[in-house]
Specification:
This protein is mainly α and 130 residues long. Helices cover 75% and strands 0% of the residues. The longest helix is centred in the N-terminal third of the chain and has 40 residues. The radius of gyration is 26 Å and the shape is globular.
Length: 130
């Protein structure tokens, strides 16, 4: 009986430990990848949804999806501090994506994905409310 436990402890325990750790790693790695895929599959942010669902009123320009604090500050230097002012410029440009992206590029330093988020947010707001 002592020999059996010694054999088990010396030869099988390290093997079982390796198998358990491997399964544990692959299982949680797969779970992490699933969670990562789910977060990247979403099309709009919470900021986008919150802005689109509510009335414009006197919202700050930073409440628009894609417009952060730094972009909001550069837009404020141009005179756009409220969301309705950026919406007005969006409508003056006749909801043209390229023209609006050019306007944002000229007046505030913004990455292309944030320009697209801003455009999509204002465009959906217009579709729902105008």
């Amino acid at each position: 009986l002592f020999w059996f436990f010694t054999f088990f402890y010396d030869s099988l325990c390290p093997f079982l430990f390796f198998v358990f750790n491997s399964c544990f790693f692959f299982f949680f790695n797969a779970q992490f990848l699933c969670i990562f895929e789910q977060t990247t599959m979403t099309t709009t942010s919470q900021k986008h949804d919150a802005f689109v669902r509510e009335q414009m009123k006197d919202k700050a320009v930073t409440e628009i999806a894609g417009v952060g604090l730094r972009s909001g500050e550069t837009l404020a230097a141009v005179g756009i501090t409220q969301a309705y002012q950026l919406l007005g410029q969006f409508l003056i440009l006749q909801k043209d994506k390229d023209a609006f992206a050019d306007f944002l590029g000229e007046n505030c330093v913004m990455q292309d994905r944030y320009k697209e988020q801003c455009f999509n947010c204002l465009n959906e707001w217009c579709d729902r409310n105008l």
